[in-house]
């Protein structure tokens, strides 16, 4: 637990700094969407490319951990859908619960894995991201299409286009191709991409902090509490059990549990806004899970380390 706490402290310190910068207007509120866009479209793909292109996969066994993570998101989606008759909420509010329980902030977990477990942790999270991003997006877009307030019909081509053009997926795929072919291991291109990647995580964490919305915590507190329980308590148990069944042990097991215990992603708010979800409840989900994960993440990983 000491290792994870030591890694979490600087991460949450930078997140807190982002909130302070926005609240004090030292960085104007209008600037944050551009910063978030820069990290998502440019810097984060560069980071993932740099990590994957130089990884030594001969020393890393990732298959079972990646498979367990993918199945974990599917199982969580099924659980939330099964609970729908018991969740007394309108359609848009249910989509917020679903997003809160089934999305994860992969880039925050990438930063945590890098600090706690080094290059191998970075590589494993990067590969989990490229496999699970399509799965999670298909799940949440489908749920928002069915129960969102905008009345749109399912648009399969649009969903697929969003997935295949996702900058994070493209960065991972390009890194994998470069690794396979031995390209850009050294030289100017490698140095430029690595330098861009170094800027990604601090800006991502600052943007997460700037996006915290404490007023949104006044939204439906019962649904907020339910989402927190699903995301921060049930999900790491589900992911851990699946990974254990798949034979995942040691640091890999802890990393899979970290994926399950991740706070919600700020991109959920954007999707709720576009597809008719409950935006205020979604903002509350992201804020609550981000704050509480400071306590639940170390506990979840500590239990995983004891078991594995």
Automatic annotation (TrEMBL):
<feature type="transmembrane region" description="Helical">
    <location>
        <begin position="168"/>
        <end position="184"/>
    </location>
</feature>
<dbReference type="InterPro" id="IPR004776">
    <property type="entry name" value="Mem_transp_PIN-like"/>
</dbReference>
<comment type="similarity">
    <text>Belongs to the auxin efflux carrier (TC 2.A.69) family.</text>
</comment>
<feature type="transmembrane region" description="Helical">
    <location>
        <begin position="222"/>
        <end position="246"/>
    </location>
</feature>
<keyword id="KW-0472">Membrane</keyword>
<feature type="transmembrane region" description="Helical">
    <location>
        <begin position="65"/>
        <end position="83"/>
    </location>
</feature>
<feature type="transmembrane region" description="Helical">
    <location>
        <begin position="283"/>
        <end position="304"/>
    </location>
</feature>
<feature type="transmembrane region" description="Helical">
    <location>
        <begin position="123"/>
        <end position="147"/>
    </location>
</feature>
<feature type="transmembrane region" description="Helical">
    <location>
        <begin position="34"/>
        <end position="53"/>
    </location>
</feature>
<keyword id="KW-1133">Transmembrane helix</keyword>
<protein>
    <submittedName>
        <fullName>AEC family transporter</fullName>
    </submittedName>
</protein>
<keyword id="KW-1003">Cell membrane</keyword>
<keyword id="KW-0813">Transport</keyword>
<feature type="transmembrane region" description="Helical">
    <location>
        <begin position="95"/>
        <end position="117"/>
    </location>
</feature>
<feature type="transmembrane region" description="Helical">
    <location>
        <begin position="6"/>
        <end position="22"/>
    </location>
</feature>
<feature type="transmembrane region" description="Helical">
    <location>
        <begin position="252"/>
        <end position="271"/>
    </location>
</feature>
<dbReference type="InterPro" id="IPR038770">
    <property type="entry name" value="Na+/solute_symporter_sf"/>
</dbReference>
<keyword id="KW-0812">Transmembrane</keyword>
<dbReference type="Pfam" id="PF03547">
    <property type="entry name" value="Mem_trans"/>
</dbReference>
<feature type="transmembrane region" description="Helical">
    <location>
        <begin position="196"/>
        <end position="215"/>
    </location>
</feature>
């Amino acid at each position: 637990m000491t290792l994870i706490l030591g890694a979490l402290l600087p991460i949450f310190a930078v997140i807190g700094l982002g909130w302070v910068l926005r609240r004090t207007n030292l960085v104007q509120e209008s600037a944050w969407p551009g910063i978030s866009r820069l990290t998502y479209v440019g810097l984060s793909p560069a980071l993932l490319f740099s990590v994957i292109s130089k990884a030594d996969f001969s020393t890393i066994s990732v298959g079972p951990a990646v498979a367990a993570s993918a199945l974990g998101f599917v199982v969580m989606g099924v659980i939330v859908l099964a609970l729908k008759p018991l969740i007394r909420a309108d359609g848009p509010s249910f989509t917020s619960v679903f997003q809160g329980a089934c999305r994860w902030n992969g880039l925050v977990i990438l930063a945590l894995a890098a600090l706690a477990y080094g290059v191998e942790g970075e590589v494993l999270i990067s590969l989990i991201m490229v496999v699970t991003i399509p799965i999670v997006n298909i799940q949440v877009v489908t749920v928002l299409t069915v129960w969102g307030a905008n009345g749109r019909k399912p648009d399969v081509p649009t969903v697929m286009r969003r997935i295949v053009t996702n900058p994070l997926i493209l960065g991972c795929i390009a890194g994998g191709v470069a690794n396979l072919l031995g390209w850009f291991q050294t030289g100017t291109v490698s140095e430029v991409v690595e330098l861009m990647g170094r800027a990604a995580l601090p800006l991502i964490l600052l943007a997460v902090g700037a996006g915290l919305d404490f007023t949104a915590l006044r939204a439906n507190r019962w649904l907020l509490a339910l989402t927190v329980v699903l995301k921060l308590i049930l999900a790491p148990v589900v992911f851990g059990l699946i990974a254990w069944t798949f034979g995942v042990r040691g640091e890999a097991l802890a990393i899979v549990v970290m994926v399950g215990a991740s706070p919600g992603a700020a991109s959920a708010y954007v999707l709720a806004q576009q597809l008719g979800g409950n935006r205020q409840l979604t903002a509350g989900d992201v804020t609550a899970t981000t704050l509480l994960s400071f306590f639940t993440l170390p506990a979840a990983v500590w239990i995983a380390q004891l078991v594995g």
